[in-house]
Amino acid sequence: MVTTTTTQATRRVASAGGAIDTVGVTQAFWAHHTPLPVLDEVTLSVPAGQFVSLVGPSGCGKSTLLRLIAGLDRPVAGHVYADGHEVTGPDPSRGIVFQDPTLLPWLSVEKNIGLGPQVQGRRDDPFVVERVNAMIDLVGLGSFRDALPAQLSGGMAQRAALARALVNRPQILLFDEPLGKLDALTRATLQTEIVRLWRDQGFTGVMVTHDVEEALLLSDRVIVFSARPARVLADICVDLERPRAQDAAGFRELRREILALLRQ
Ligand SMILES: Nc1ncnc2c1ncn2[C@@H]1O[C@H](COP(=O)(O)OP(=O)(O)OP(=O)(O)O)[C@@H](O)[C@H]1O
Ligand SMILES: [Mg+2]
User: Fold this and answer.
1) Domain ranges of the chain
2) pLDDT for the residue numbered 13
3) Does the keyword field hold Phosphoprotein (predicted)?
4) Measured from the CA of 208, which atom of ligand 1 is nearest?
């Protein structure tokens, strides 16, 4: 495994919390009566407040790993920890944003964003109402709070999905190719927005992406996985000042390094 030393100080967060550890995480599924190995002893540590991207060949197991960190599935071997506690199921402190915004079509933007607290019976709590309003403003949907999802553009719908995840004050926010279906311009805007939200809100970010440039624009580290069953091929520190310029020599060098690993 290639490891580069982290020299850029991890951003300090007031609410310190959100550290992720996967230890020897192995996952397999059954396909046509035969076991399909998907993750092979994946060991990773993400300190609280870091932003990490996961890249690797299609089908290698990136989404599978994200689901294990979210607590949506359990590994066949190994352990996943959040702040030292074993992850045994989903928890509002760990949010996830998918490629599709998955908004409920019959609810307004405001009601979709307030769905988590509503399910927890906290919809009318004044702190929750204030938080829902703050998140609507934070993602720039103030004038669309009463709109239905069908009235939103793809980028706006994904902003609503981000706000819905942020309402729960997640310490960990997991992203599974959240910008994959957006046009290049909207994608670039939302990349900047995600960095801003990460800085403002102080969560630990883990993003699966196929786009090496996106990984380098956003992340403190890029983890490169092998083909299935996924093993960590490299753990690369992105020691570049933000906002990052894609034509900077350091950026181009890292992009070359990662693309070479992905072609192995
Ligand atoms: N619930 C499941 N049951 C059976 N097989 C599954 C299940 N979930 C995932 N797989 C298989 O596990 C492998 C890894 O899937 P995963 O979705 O994690 O890949 P990925 O790296 O996210 O791929 P992509 O980049 O295309 O999204 C695939 O071969 C997939 O078919
Ligand atoms: Mg996937």
Assistant:
1) 19-93+170-264, 103-169
2) 44
3) no
4) 22
Which of the listed residues 64, 76, 98 should we mutate to test ligand 1's pocket, taking the one with most ligand atoms within 8 A of CB? 64
- Distance from the CA of 115 to the center of ligand 2, in angstroms? 25
Q: Report pLDDT for 215.
A: 98
Nearest residue to 172 (alpha-carbon basis) of 139, 201, 135, 151? 201
The residue with tokens 């019959």 is 106
Residue recorded with tokens 């020691």:
239
Q: What is the 3-state secondary structure (H, E, C) of 140-175?
A: CCHHHCCCCHHHCCHHHHHHHHHHHHHHCCCCEEEE
CA distances from 67 to 43, 71, 174, 208, 228 (A): 15, 6, 9, 11, 16
Task: Report yes or no: 204 and 173 within 8 Å, Cβ to Cβ.
Answer: yes
Distance CA 151, CA 67 (A): 30
Residues with CB under 5 A from ligand 2 (ion): 63
Compute the distance between CA of residue 178 and CA of residue 38 in angstroms, rounded to an integer.
Answer: 22
Give the CA count within 13 Å in the CB-facing half-sphere of 211: 18
Q: How far is the CA of 141 from the centre of ligand 2 (A)?
A: 28
Task: Give tens-digit pLDDT for 134-184.
Answer: 999 999 999 999 999 999 999 999 999 999 999 999 999 999 999 998 999
CATH number at 19-93+170-264: 3.40.50.300
- Tell me, in angstroms, the distance from the centre of ligand 1 to residue 208's CA: 13
Tokens (6 digits) for 43:
């060991």
